[in-house]
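Usage

Read records sequentially. Each one opens with the input sequence:
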Amino acid sequence: MRMWCWGAFAAALTVCGAARAQSAWATYGSLGVDLSRGITNTDSGNVKLAAARELGRWVYNVGLSGNYASTNGISTQEDEHARLGTTLTLSKRTFWFAGTLYDRNRFDGFAYQESGASGMGRLLIESKANKLSTELGAGYLREEPEALTYNTFGEVISRRPQPAIGEAVVHFGAQYTHRFSANAKLINAMLIESGSTNTMSTDNLTVQVKVHKHLALSIGVDVTNNTNPPFGQVRHTLTVTTVNLTYSFSSSKSVSAAQPLPTLLQGLHMP
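and closes with the structure output:
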C-alpha cells in the first residue's frame, strides 16, 4: 500500500485518540473462507476490518479489506482496499464529507486506483424500515494501468507498468437500507466517480441476518465497472460474491464502523 495511505490512517487515529471531547466509538470485523478439494483445489478468503470514532458532530473512520483466491496453486484474485474519511453533521438531514480510497487489484489491469473527494450529502428518507441518503461532490482520481501477460494455464507471468493517469472527477453516491425485522436487513451502497477518460462505479449489495447480539451472517455481492479498462483487458465489470460471519460492536447507537457516511467510505458492504 502506498505510503500516503498509511500516513493518513496514522494521522486519523492520532487525532481520534488525542481528542478530549465526549465521544463514541465502534469496531467491525468480517471473515469468510472457502476451501475446496477434488478434481481441482480451490482456496479463497476475504477479510474486512473497520473502526469509527465520533467526536461531537464529527465522525472519523478507517477501513481495510482484502479478497484472495487461488486454483491449483495459481493465484486468481488478489484485491486490497483501504479507506479513510470524515463527516461533519450540519443539520439533522445534511452533512459534509471528505475521504480517500485506495484499491489494488492484481488482475483488473490497474496497478492501483486511488481517489479523494469532498462534497455535500443529504438524508432523503429516514423511517423505521427504510433509510436513503445521497451525496454529490468533486474530487481527483489517479490510476496506473499495467499490461498483463498470461501463460497457457491462465497465470500472470509478467506485468508492464504504463504511465499513470490523473484527472478531476464528479463524485456521486447513494446508500439505501431496508430493515426486514429486528434481526435482518438489506443494504445497497453505490458509488460513481466519473472523469473525462474513465468512469469507475461500484455497487455493494448485502443481506444480513443477526445470529447473536454482536454476530451476523452476511451474504454480499460487489460489482465494479470501469468504462475504459486498460489496453488488453476485455472485461469492464468484475463481480465478487461473499458469505461471511461478521462481528460488530458500538459504544453508542449514534456511531457505527459498519455504516460510515458518506458512501465514499463504503466498499466493505458492512451491516
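Summary fields computed downstream for this record:
- The chain has a mean pLDDT of 79.
- The longest helix spans residues 3-18.
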